[in-house]
Structure formats: structure tokens, C-alpha cells
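Chapter review: from sequence to fold.
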Amino acid sequence: MHGENLQELTLLAGVGMSLKQVLAATTSIAGELITPVGSVGRLAPTSVADVVLNGTLNSVGQLNDLPRMIERICKDGRNQFPVQAAG
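The C-alpha cell string follows.
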């Protein structure tokens, strides 16, 4: 179900994938399966990017905390969920 895919990261780590492998599987590798090679799944010139900027992720043990670590989600250079002004 859309919006629950962060839970899959913990499952991938649970079967022995390293943090680097989990992140690659959910970004560059997954992107190459659905679009032309090299156009998504990485931050690089000419890439089409949906970018999640988060806090420091150092270990697979932090994957369950990832939803709380997300600071911003951008697409085509635009913040998709701008912080609403209080008041």
C-alpha cells in the first residue's frame, strides 16, 4: 500500500541486507527497474528526482525511526509538503 513502503526497509534489513544495500534497493536499483537507466534513483545531473532529505541514518537499527526523521520531500525541486505557518 502506498505510504507504507518504509516498513519494507526494516524487512529487507531483517533478511540480512546492510544499510547501504537497503538504501540502494529502494532508490537507484528500484528506479532503474521502472525507468530508463540512470534517470532516477540518484541525485545527479539529468536525473528525475524525488528526494527525501532526512536526519543522519547510521544503521539498520534506525530504519523504524525513519518516518520521524524525514524533514522534507521534494519533487522537481519543489517541496511537496510545505510546513504550514502556525496561527
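Two observations follow directly from the output. The two ends are 34 Å apart (CA to CA). The chain has a mean pLDDT of 76.
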